[in-house]
Each structure stands twice: as C-alpha cells, then as structure tokens.
C-alpha cells in the first residue's frame, strides 16, 4: 500500500476532483497537426484572459477540433504546466525565451512566472550563487530595486538597466541624475529614483525612458529638495527629503497610483545646533502588520556616530516609538514583518541585534538584544562599517565584507525553554554559500525578488544572482 | 514490496481489456496490469469502471506511457530518460503507483566489491557535513551541517533544510519519519526536531539532584529501537551514562550504564548499537593517546537495569589474544550478529560471534592477497558493517571485507567462523583516496554514504548492473 493512500480523499471524490471527467468536458485541440485532449477545468486554470480559456468556451465540441497554427511541442509544455503546475523536464530542450514568447501568444505568461519566479519558491537555505548579470559601461551599480516577481532594476551612473523576471532580457535608459542613490520599483516598468545631490524625486517610465513625474518638496528656504530615501506601502509612496541647505527635512507621503501628495510627516526645521533633528531619514521601511513606517537615519558627529529610529503613524502623523542611538549606532537597520522584529548591525561591534516589535518598551532603556558578542558593543574599531542588513520572508540577511550571513529563527518548544536557559527567541546564523562561493569584494547592495537574491559588490560592474535550483530550469 | 511482474500473456477475453485516453492519446491495457499498482492506486480504481468509452485522464500521455510500461514489465523503459526523477515520482504519486516506481528506480542491492561513486550531495551552504544519518533504510539521508539539517529523500532530491539552535551537531539520528534527534559536543542535552513544522519539539537533559557533578551533560552517541531512544551523555567531570528515552512521550524511562569516566575503561561510549534480536545495547569507546589506542566494548541489558552482560577492554584485558595491537574502531554487524574490530597496529580485521562470546572470542581474518597486504602503522580507521559486509575507511581509502560463499547450501560453514572466509577488496580507486580522510561511513537502503574530513558534501556509492561501457570511437 502506498504510504500516501491514507491522505487521499475517498475514491469517488478523487475521480471527480482529479481530472477524470465526463465526456462533455473534454476539449480537443489540434495544434500544428498534433491532437491534444484536455478538460475545460484544466484550460480554465489559465485565467479568463488567456487564449486557453477561450478554447474552452468555444461551443463546437462535437465538430472538428479547434486548429491552432503553432508549434505542438511548445504547446504540450504549457499544457503540462497547466495540468501539474510544474514545467516538465522536456522544457529544457528549449530556451526559456521560446517559452516566454509562446506563453505571450497564448496570454499565459503569468503561469510561467508563477512556476519559475514566484516569491513562495524562495528557499533561503537552498540559495546558490548561480548567475552574474554584466552591466555595460564603466559605472558601478549604486542602487537596486526589485518587484516581488523578480524584475530587477539596477542604477549605475546616470543609467538604469532593467532585467525582466527571467533575467533573459534587459533594457537601459538614461536619466538626468549623475548617480542614483535611491531606487524603488513601483511596477516592472515604473520606478521612483532620487539622489542626494539632485533636486526632486522622479517617477521614470523604464520602457520609454521618460520622466513621468517629478515630485519636489516645498521647503521654507526655497532651496532644492534632495532625496535621502524612498519607501513604499501598498497604497503610498514615501520619500525622505532634505533641503539643499540641509537645515530642514521631511517625509512626504504620495499616493502610489496618482502620485499626488497625501500628507507630510516628520517635518523638522533646524535652528541652532540641534544635531538630532538635523538627521534626515535615510531608510524608510513599511511595517504592514503595525501600519507604521520605520524611518531611520544616522550622522557622524564629534562624539561618534549618532542615529535615531522612529516609527511613524502616517494617518495621525505622530511618532509611535522613538529610539536614539548613541552607543554602537546601527550601520544598517531593517524591519521584518513576519518575524515582528527590528534588526540592526552595530557600526562598532559589527554584530546583529534585534528588538521585538511586540515588546517595544520605554525608550530610555536599551531595547536591543545582541545576537553575538556583547562585549564588542564598546569597541571603537567600526567593524560594522559598510555592513548591510535586509529582511526577506522569515530570514534576515546581513552582509559583512564579502560574505552574507543568514539569520533564522529556531522555533523552540516553549515549555522547554527555561530548562535550556535559552532566551525568549532563538536566532542562529549561517554563512551562505559553499566554500567556492564565499568571499569576494565587499557587498554594497542586497535585494530580493521572486525566488532570487541579488547583490552587488564593490568595484564590480555586475550583479550577482543567487537562486535555489528550480525544477524545469 | 509488490514486485511480482504481471503476466503479459495475451488476454483472450475482451472484457479484461481497458481503454484509456490520456491527454488525447489512446492506451489499451488489461485490468490485471492496471490493478498491479496496488488496490489503492488511482489506476486500480479506474479499472473497476465498466464502460465502453475510454476513460479520459487529463495528464501528459508521454509520462503515462513510461509508467504503463513500468506496470506491464516491472522495469523502467529507456524512454524515461527524457524525464527527471522528480517528474516521474510526482506523476507516479498522482497515479498512486509510487511504490512500484521506487522499487524499479532503486539501485540493486549494495555490493561492496562492485560499487562506484555515483554522486556527491552538496548542501547549498555550510557544506562541511558534521554528521549524517541514513537510518530510515530507504536510501534517504539527513545531513547535519553548520547547525542545519538538510533532508534528501529516497531519490536523493532535496526536500528541505531546517536550522537548529545548535551550532555544531555531532550526533544525529532519525527516530521517526519526520523527527530527528540531535546532540552536540559543544552544547548540553539531547534535542528533538520536527521536520514538517521545522520546530524544536523538546530536549532531554541528564540530571541528578544527588550529584552536583552531573550538569551540562553532552550527547556523544544515539541509537534507537522501535519505541525507545538510547543516548550516551558525558559530563565535564567525565561522569557518563546512557539514558533510555521513550519515543512517544520524549520522557526518560531509565538511566543505565553509569560510569565514572576516570579511565579509558569507563569513559563515555562513542558508538551505541541496539541489537533487535536480543534487545541489548552495545557500547564501544576508543581513544588514542601517546601510548596507542585504548578502549572497551560493553554490552548492557536495558531491561535488567542495565546489567553488564559481557565486556572487554583493550589493552590489558585477557580477552584479546594480540598484545599491543588494540582496536582502533569497532562496529556491530546487526544482521549477522558479529562484532568487528580493526586492529590499530597491524591493521587486521577481527570478528567475534555475538552469540558465542567467551574469554577470547576474536578470530583474526587473514588477507591472502599479497598485493593487498597492509604494511602501514596505526592510521585513522573507521569501520562500518552493512548488509553483512564490513566497510573500512583507512585514511582516505575505502575497502570492503566480504564473505565468500563456499558451499552452495552453506550448511557446512554455518557454525564455523572461518579465518579465510572473508576477502578484502578496495571499493575505491587510488585517486578517490586522495580526496581526504574518511570520517564516517554509513549504509542506508542500497547506498553507502561516506563523508571525509574537511571535504564538502557526502559521497554516495551504489552498485549498478549497467556496464557503463565507454565508447572510444
């Protein structure tokens, strides 16, 4: 008896649900001279816009089969994809480009995207260094942006190169910036870009290479408004501006569809030597579960690096929680919705810290829990300089030099915790990659999209792609 | 395993025949072939339908033709090479004939004298395996590496990776289909992890309120019976014992074999084996010091409060007929009820019949082949008994001692352990041995898994009936 027999539904249901159908549901299609038979239900899985579902709606079932003048081999691959949800191994005989072109003809490209680049396929433990995407010219990548299904935009110099979800095709556009410091993908063809030395944020159409909109912040001094950071929530586009004279800063909230301003939060005017309010937010992260935006910024002052982290409620414009960083300020900071925690790399210690979003207490006490050597907090070596930290899914990725550390939470049995003397939450680290993958020059950017991780390195005119081995390709 | 090959004699009754329409292609077969997939398979369920029209199944016809010939002939046709193993397994699961496919796809029984390296399994990160377990017996393997556990199924395809709270797993055993139990040299306790939920189920610690020296006991080896787990614990004060743990409740049943650890004769066992025939547990410990190897073999009965049934220690016990040639490693041949030891000085292999242990039970196996004569001094040796063969790793070389069948009926040789019944052969080639010192050998299913010191990945050795002829044209 097969081991899975017990999990199967009763026989009659099985036959009904698993594609063994009455004759009236069977559709015959003649593709390039080869006959295929399938069911209406299978074809309907392709979605209402696809050519497949139009076949199933055609009424002349009993007459001659529908004829489509396309390649039957490619059709059989797409049909297998519909039936099983996975690409068959015969797809390897073709280039992915052929399949994408064919899927565009039948209007079923989302199916292909789903099976190859779905974010749910992202398997942090199984990522391998697999591709390098070269960038033409002599500029080094300065910023990266991804969509959830794996389209990648890379800013290098005054150019933005966009790679499609399959990383097979690219296009490059020229912008007005000399270098882009902040980049955010709004859709596969639309991106928001800004720079710390250029006034205004631009919404760029990456297909046409044109500026769709320029968004500026009207500050009191009537000087230029440079962009320090760009973030987004499902509804809003968030931009951190600083005035050209660097005496005021603010976070503007725009509607993500119309780009009209919605509200302004965190407006600061600096009078005198108030260092803390002079720090503009250089990272904006939306926290969906708490409906707040995390804004963080740091500043190198006479007494070391100072910084602050604030959680803003956009609707009320109030600060929910604020933390001033004086000892071992973050070198980079991120927030994870699924882990409900803020993570930072300390600039002095180079260690990873976390604080639980559900237990944010008063801001006087140190909320950070060190995940490494606590004694290093007070060292002055700046070991964490240049480290990047990003959260994706249930994992936190932290770059240190040329290596990426993967931090994952271990789900511990709660009743046994006290016996083992373990803290409330257990995070453990692994270095990513096999021996041959480890090392390389310093990592400057980390991004995640679809089933892939992208990173750029210092002095390399390329993007490195890490992905888990996916069936089919 | 249902491995009867269905009779392919021509069927005379037309009612025995059944027509199937798979994805537009017609197949005709007999009801008995359809039912050979077992009573719970989808095909057997379909065969009971009495209709004139062919039964329509909305799946890929090409893979179905492979699976149909598997049912007809019991073997996989060469046309299956177009499909990946994973694809065949998924499709067989759909039709409910996975056990047939598993049987046809699994390698022939492992024969050490005719095995070759088929593949090396590389986890995606932290690729140095610290230990592994193949105890499920279906050719699957769970690898512990860098605090993670990666599971590979009977097909050796990666099914998942979980992170444990330990940083260095030094002993692992799969005690239930989804549960691994792990221990570490560097952290206290025995820990249970569930693979489905990727969570920590619980921990077991050795405690004794009357003895303050018993704390932070670490696990050195794990064995299991059908309902119990045996784990040896070692304290920093070298006190040690074996805890018997119930598999269903994860509670300690009893503590046996408590030893002081003050000498080589009482230190913690580094290897535990449970004998299903007699229900006893065999523990062995070997250390190497400035004066050579020393250690013991001891047999406890867990039901009789851990009474010692038999023991021997080397050097020094009268139970070794060879002075100054103490064992370097010991293993138990569970199927054949034999003990095997590898001598540290001479490199000879000796065996003892577990049913007939006396004062000096050892029989030293002679190697007649002058080419193979072992001349080296004491080297790192590991020994593993699997399927009545003895695999020995000597530095990097992998050799096997296998029994020669002398008489066809085997009656004459039954009761005599012949010195000359075993022959020694190398499994590997000279160049294989240069990859590194063999750290662990374990058999599982029809595979032999080998890990080497400071080498990434686990080697998989299999026997094959294919000649592997290489064309030189």
UniProtKB/TrEMBL annotation, chain A:
It comes from the Eukaryota. This is Uncharacterized protein. It comes from Manihot esculenta (Cassava).
From TrEMBL, chain B:
This is Uncharacterized protein. Pathway: Protein modification; protein ubiquitination. PANTHER family: BTB/POZ DOMAIN-CONTAINING ADAPTER FOR CUL3-MEDIATED RHOA DEGRADATION PROTEIN FAMILY MEMBER, RE57120P. It comes from Manihot esculenta. InterPro entries: BACURD1-3 (IPR045068), Beta_prop_At2g24240 (IPR057441), SKP1/BTB/POZ_sf (IPR011333), T1-type_BTB (IPR003131). GO terms for biological process: protein homooligomerization. Transmembrane segments: none annotated. CDD domains: BTB_POZ_KCTD-like. Residues 131-462 form the At2g24240-like C-terminal beta-propeller domain. It comes from the Eukaryota.
């Amino acid at each position: 008896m097969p081991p899975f027999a017990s999990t199967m539904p009763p026989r009659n249901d099985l036959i009904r649900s698993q594609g063994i159908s009455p004759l009236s549901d069977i559709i015959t299609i003649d593709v390039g001279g080869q006959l295929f038979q399938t069911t209406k239900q299978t074809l309907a899985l392709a979605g209402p816009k696809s050519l497949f579902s139009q076949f199933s709606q055609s009424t002349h079932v009993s007459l001659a089969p529908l004829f489509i003048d396309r390649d039957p081999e490619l059709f059989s691959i797409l049909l297998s994809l519909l039936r099983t949800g996975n690409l068959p191994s015969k797809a390897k005989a073709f280039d992915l480009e052929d399949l994408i072109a064919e899927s565009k003809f039948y209007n079923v490209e989302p199916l292909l995207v789903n099976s190859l680049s779905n974010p749910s396929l992202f398997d942090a433990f199984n990522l391998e260094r697999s591709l390098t995407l070269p960038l033409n010219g002599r500029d080094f990548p300065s910023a990266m942006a991804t969509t959830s299904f794996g389209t990648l935009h890379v800013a290098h110099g005054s150019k933005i190169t966009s790679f499609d979800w399959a990383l097979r095709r690219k296009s490059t556009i020229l912008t007005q910036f000399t270098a882009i410091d902040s980049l955010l993908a709004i859709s596969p063809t639309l991106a928001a870009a800004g720079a710390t030395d250029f006034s205004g944020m631009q919404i760029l159409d990456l297909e046409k290479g044109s500026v769709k909109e320029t968004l500026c912040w009207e500050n009191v001094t009537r000087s230029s408004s440079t962009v320090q950071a760009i973030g987004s929530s499902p509804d809003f586009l968030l931009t951190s501006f600083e005035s050209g004279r660097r005496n005021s800063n603010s976070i503007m909230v725009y509607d993500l569809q119309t780009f009209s301003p919605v509200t302004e939060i965190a407006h600061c005017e600096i009078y005198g030597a108030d260092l803390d309010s002079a720090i503009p937010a250089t990272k904006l992260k939306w926290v969906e579960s708490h409906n707040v935006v995390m804004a963080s910024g740091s500043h190198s002052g006479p007494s070391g690096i100072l910084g602050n982290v604030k959680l803003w409620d956009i609707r009320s414009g109030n600060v929910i929680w604020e933390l001033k960083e004086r000892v071992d300020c973050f070198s980079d900071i991120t927030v994870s919705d699924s882990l409900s925690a803020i993570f930072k790399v300390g600039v002095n210690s180079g260690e990873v810290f976390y604080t639980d979003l559900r237990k944010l207490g008063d801001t006087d006490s140190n909320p950070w829990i060190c995940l490494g050597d606590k004694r290093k907090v007070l060292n002055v070596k700046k070991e964490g300089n240049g480290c990047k930290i990003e959260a994706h899914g249930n994992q936190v990725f932290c770059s240190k030099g040329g290596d990426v550390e993967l931090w994952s939470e271990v789900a511990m049995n709660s009743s046994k915790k006290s016996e083992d003397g373990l803290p409330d939450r257990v995070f453990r680290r692994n270095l990513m990659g096999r021996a041959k993958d480890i090392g390389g020059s310093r990592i400057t950017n980390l991004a995640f999209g679809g089933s892939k991780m992208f990173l750029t390195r210092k002095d390399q005119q390329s993007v490195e792609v890490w992905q888990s081995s996916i069936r089919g390709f | 395993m249902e491995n009867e090959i269905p009779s392919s004699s021509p069927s005379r009754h037309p009612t025995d025949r059944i027509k199937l329409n798979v994805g537009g292609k017609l197949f005709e077969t007999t009801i008995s072939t359809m039912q050979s997939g077992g009573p719970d398979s989808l095909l057997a369920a379909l065969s009971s339908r009495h209709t004139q029209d062919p039964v329509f199944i909305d799946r890929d016809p090409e893979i179905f033709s492979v699976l149909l010939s598997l049912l007809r002939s019991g073997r996989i046709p060469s046309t299956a090479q177009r499909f990946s193993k994973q694809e065949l397994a998924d499709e067989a699961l759909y039709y409910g004939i996975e056990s047939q496919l598993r049987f046809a796809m699994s390698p022939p029984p492992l024969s050490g004298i005719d095995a070759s390296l088929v593949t090396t399994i590389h986890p995606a990160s932290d690729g140095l395996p610290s230990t592994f377990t193949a105890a499920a017996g279906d050719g699957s393997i769970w690898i512990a590496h860098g605090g993670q556990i990666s599971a590979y199924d009977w097909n050796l395809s990666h099914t998942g990776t979980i992170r444990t709270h330990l940083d260095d797993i030094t002993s692992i055993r799969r005690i239930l289909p989804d549960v691994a139990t792990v221990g570490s040299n560097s952290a206290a306790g025995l820990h249970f992890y569930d693979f489905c939920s990727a969570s920590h189920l619980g921990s077991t610690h050795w405690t004794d309120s009357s003895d303050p020296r018993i704390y932070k006991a670490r696990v050195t080896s794990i064995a299991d019976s059908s309902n119990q787990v045996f784990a040896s614990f070692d304290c920093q004060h070298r006190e040690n014992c074996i805890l018997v743990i119930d598999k269903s409740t994860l509670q300690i049943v009893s503590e046996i074999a408590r030893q002081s650890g003050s000498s080589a004769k009482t230190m913690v066992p580094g290897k535990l084996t449970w004998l299903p025939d007699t229900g006893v547990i065999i523990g062995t410990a070997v250390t190497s010091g400035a004066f050579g190897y020393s250690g013991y073999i001891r047999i406890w009965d867990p039901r009789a409060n851990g009474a010692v049934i038999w023991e021997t220690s080397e050097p020094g016990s009268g139970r070794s007929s060879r002075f100054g040639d103490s064992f370097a490693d010991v293993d138990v041949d569970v199927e054949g009820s034999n003990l095997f030891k590898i001598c540290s000085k001479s490199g000879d292999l000796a065996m003892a019949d577990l049913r007939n242990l006396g004062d000096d039970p050892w029989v030293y196996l002679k190697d007649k082949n002058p080419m193979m004569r072992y001349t080296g001094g004491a080297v790192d040796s590991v020994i593993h008994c699997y399927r009545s063969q003895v695999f020995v790793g000597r530095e990097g070389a992998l050799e096997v001692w296998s029994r020669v069948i002398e008489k066809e009926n085997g009656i004459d040789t039954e009761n005599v352990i012949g010195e000359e019944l075993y022959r020694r052969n190398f499994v590997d080639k000279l160049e294989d041995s240069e990859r590194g010192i063999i750290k662990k050998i374990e058999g599982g299913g029809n595979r032999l898994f080998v890990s080497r010191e400071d080498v990434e990945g686990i080697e998989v050795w299999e026997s094959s009936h294919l000649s592997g002829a290489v064309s030189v044209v």
